[in-house]
Structure formats: C-alpha cells, structure tokens
Design a protein that fits this description.
The structure is a single chain. The protein contains nine helices and two strands, in the order ααββααααααα. It has helices at residues 8-36, 45-49, 63-93, 98-112, 116-135, 140-143, 146-156, 162-189, 193-201; strands at 50-53, 58-61. The chain has a two-stranded antiparallel ribbon. α3 runs antiparallel to α4 (98-112) and α3 packs parallel to α8.
Length: 207
C-alpha cells in the first residue's frame, strides 16, 4: 500500500503559522497590560449572583441569576408554543386547499424575511402594547391570590413583569414557529405516495 505523504515544506508552513498566532496573542496581551493598565476585579460578581435577604434571612437570587432563570423560562415556553404553531402551519402548508397553503406561506415568508431585531422591536413596542392590555395581564399581580402569584412566579417569573414575559414568549414563538413550519412541511412531503400505499397494504391506516 502506498501512503500519500504531505510535502516536507508543509510542516514548516504549519509551524510558522502557529508561531505567528502565538506571537500575536502574546503581543496583544502585552499591549493590553502595558497600555490600558487595567486591573480586572471580579470580586463583586458573586454579589450579582446571590444577595442576602434580610426578611428571609437567607440568600436569594440577584440580577444575574434572575436573568438566567428568565432566559430559561422564555426558551422553554417559546419552544413549546413554537412547536404547536409550527406543527399546525406545517400541516396547512401541505393542505390540498389553496387558502390554508397561502395563509401558512404568508406567515413563513413574512417572519423569515424580517430581521430578528426589527421583528422583536416592532412586535414589542407596537403589537404587544395593544394585545397585553386586552388580556388584562397588568391586573393579575393586583387581583390574584397569593397562591396564584407563587405559581406565576415559578412558571413565568415576577408577576409584575408578566406582560413583558408573555410578549417575549409570543415573539420568540412566532419567529421560531416559522422554521418549525418548514421542518414539518419537509417531513410530511418526504413521505412518498408509494410509502403510504405500502403501509396501507399491510393494514396500517392512512394517518
């Protein structure tokens, strides 16, 4: 068996490139330490993770941890809602009727052709500001029982920020749902007519 050996000069080229990259990193670190003369102080970061609560006499999540929990909540609820919306729209994309196909295609093309930052900005400041008052989300933190507030706080975060969280969930779900729609459409259309007939021939239903 003949083995293809790389030219000897290529090893020298790799070595020169590696030395150049390491030298560049060392130079940048040196310039940062000598020119900026900035001493990084990370000692206050733990205080933003947890804080001492005088009422509870224990540590409670602070800004960074609250932000992390809010991000996780937004991700979970938006994924669930996007999966439901994407499945419905994906089935509509493969419908034999014109109106469901056009409606779902309009949704996909509209969402996917708008930049995410622009979509979030328009939805939050113009659309959600009109929807959330109709849902009465701002009054929940005032009229709800303590148990309801605890459940909402666990599932969606602070009740006083409920309208903001719901707007974020809907916004992300609409954006993600457009991509889920295409995945569902491709999955359904990948099943050929012959595969359906073969399945029905062995006793399976069309569904």
């Amino acid at each position: 068996m003949i083995r293809n050996k790389a030219p000897y000069n290529s090893y020298w080229i790799d070595a020169i490139v590696l030395i150049a990259v390491v030298g560049l990193v060392v130079y940048v670190v040196y310039r940062v330490n000598t020119v900026l003369v900035y001493n990084w102080d990370w000692s206050f970061i733990p205080g933003y993770l947890f804080r001492w609560d005088e009422e509870l006499q224990s540590y409670a999540p602070n800004l960074l941890m609250k932000g992390l929990f809010t991000t996780i909540r937004l991700a979970i609820w938006s994924i669930i809602l996007a999966a439901i919306l994407g499945f419905i729209m994906g089935v509509m994309r493969t419908s034999s009727r014109l109106f469901p196909r056009m409606l779902s295609r309009l949704y996909v093309e509209l969402i996917r052709n708008i930049p995410p930052v622009v979509f979030i900005f328009v939805f939050y400041f113009f659309i959600s500001s009109q929807i959330t008052p109709l849902l009465g989300l701002d009054d929940i933190s005032i009229d709800s029982s303590p148990l309801t507030l605890k459940v909402l706080d666990f599932l969606l975060g602070p009740p006083e920020l409920l309208s903001n969280v719901v707007a974020g969930i809907i916004c992300l779900a609409l954006f993600e749902g457009a991509y889920v729609t295409e995945i569902v459409r491709v999955g359904i259309q990948s099943i050929s007519k012959g595969q359906v007939e073969a399945g029905m021939s062995i006793g399976l239903s069309r569904l």
